[in-house]
Amino acid sequence: MQHATPSATAPGSSQPWYKVLYIQVLIAIALGVLLGYVAPDTAKAMKWLGDAFIALIKMMIAPIIFCTIVHGIASIGDLKKVGRVGLKALVYFEVVSSLALIIGVVVGEIVRPGAGFGATAEQLDAKAVAGYVSKAQADSTVAHIMAIIPKSYFDAFAGGDLLQILLISVLTGVVITGLGERGKPAIHAIEAAGEIFFRIIGMIVKLAPIGAFGAMAYTIGQYGIGKLGNLAGLVATFYLTSLLFVLVVLGAIARFSGFSILKFLAYIKDELLIVLGTSSSETVLPHMMQKMKRLGASDSVVGLVIPTGYSFNLDGTNIYMTLATLFLAQAVGADLSFGQYATIIGVAMLTSKGASGVTGAGFITLAATLAAIPGNPVPVAAMALILGIDKFMSECRALTNLVGNGVACVVVSRWEGELDPVKLREVMANPLAIGTEIADEKPVPVAP
User: Fold this and answer.
1) What is the mean pLDDT of residues 138-154?
2) What's the rounded Cα separation, in Å, for the pair 27 and 17?
3) Most C-beta atoms within 10 A of its C-beta, which of 133, 170, 210, 279?
4) Residue 18's CB: how many other CB atoms inside 10 A?
5) What angle do CA 15, 399, 59 make, to 5 degrees?
6) CA–CA separation, 56 vs 201, rounded Å?
7) How far apart are CA 288 and CA 89, in angstroms?
8) 3-class DSSP state for residue 56?
9) How many CB atoms lie within 10 A of CB 184?
């Protein structure tokens, strides 16, 4: 067999450039944008391609998370360690998430993207956001807690709710650990099942370019590039704030943990591009777990931190929540008090939990946050002002959430003393090549 010439291969890959996943996704996104601009009606008909890809991925998320968490907990064999890792992860999540919320407020006050918008109650279209408002009204602290409990053990798998899956996975892992020797057959069975599910995901991910093309074509065809110009200030502010958060805040955390955030971004480039095309970080959850293990994080930490982070560590969503709230307040001319700012941060911290990487979830949590501000200075109907551009911001939310969870996994693994420095140095020395190599493999869980 003839080897491809260097000019025909992608950097760091032995494959022809056109067979490399991230290049395929890039081309697909570009074609989707082009089709959406040239033939909007045809582009809108491509929506099912993106929906089908996301559905294929989501059908595997529940069993993969279940097998990974149960196997991780059972493999540790020490429930005190499980609790310690979980507590460290939650502490990290809350600290960094709070910082993201505060940064959104600070940037919103400094830049004031909504100042001078001059929106009035008569201009607001309450009907346009009625569906989001009704979903937000059904949310409360008690409802949030009750929603974590599935109707039955298997209902969590049917519904695909991440928090419900986390609950039954942790309970199952704890019980199997308590069984000792009698639980080992169950561990082996779950490990084998996990390998099957990961191999299926490896097949599905090859369809990412088709999914990214369909999703991006629909977005541009439905909303038009012109929508970005209408509220360019908010979109640009959000993207720049998220970029600064990743480079400065997460960059400082990464540097303290012994790696470069820029090299880390290069390492997960394939996942970032898939998320960009689909607007959902759930589409790359299995691959992120594989890459974190290859980076040097321990199996047990990866199995606990990554799935949990998808519900509790949503940095991009948190930035969006406070920044969008301040934009709407400025747009309608509302002056917020210190107490109202505190309420926004506190409520956003609660409502963002469980939003995961699902497209549009951030808009629902925003409605819940606005409704909870004392005195209702910002009418929930004001959300109609940003309804048209929310889809463009959902990509940034998902991308920032993904990077934040990856960094959190490495940090907690190092905090726990289970980060392999040799693997970390190897990957960081050539992140593009190794990241591409892993993306082109069928992901198989590494046994501890």
Assistant:
1) 72
2) 11
3) 279
4) 11
5) 75
6) 9
7) 17
8) helix
9) 12
Buried b (16+ CB within 10 A) or exposed e, 326-359: bbbbbbbebebeeebbebbbebbbbbbbbbbbbb
Name the DSSP letter for residue 15.
Answer: S
The stretches of 206-250 forming alpha helices (DSSP H) are 208-223, 226-230, 232-244
The span from the CA of 382 to the CA of 138, in Å, is: 19
DSSP 388: T
**Amino acid identity of 321?**
M
End-to-end CA distance of the chain: 37
| 270/440 Cα distance (integer angstroms) | 10
Question: Are 215 and 278 a contacting pair, CB within 8 Å?
Answer: yes
What the block records as the tokens of 441 is 């493999």
Residue 429 tokens read as: 């020395």
For residue 411, what is the enclosing H or E element? helix 390-415
pLDDT tens per residue, range 353-380: 655 544 455 666 777 777 778 877 887 7
Query: Which 3 state secondary structure label does DSSP give 311?
Result: helix
Asked whether 388 and 289 are in contact (CB, 8 A), the reply is: no
Residues 201 and 443 sit within 8 Å (Cβ to Cβ): yes
Distances (CA, A) of 159 to 47, 269, 309, 313: 22, 30, 19, 21
Q: Whole-prediction pTM value? A: 0.76
Cα dihedral 388, 365, 337, 376 sign? positive
**What tokens does 270 get?**
């394939």
Helix (H) or strand (E) holding 135: helix 130-137
Q: Which residue has the tokens 């040799």?
A: 422
What are the tens digits of pLDDT across the range 101-145? 999 999 989 988 877 766 665 555 555 455 545 555 555 556 667
* Token code pair at residue 242: 């998220």
Tokens at residue 422, please? 């040799």
Please state, in angstroms and rounded to a whole number, the distance separating the CA atoms of residues 100 and 322. Answer: 9
Instruction: Give the Cβ contact number of residue 158 at 10 Å.
Output: 12
**What are the C-alpha distances in Å from 370 to residues 132, 331, 349?**
12, 14, 13
Q: Measure the CA–CA gap between 354 and 351, rounded to whole angstroms.
A: 8
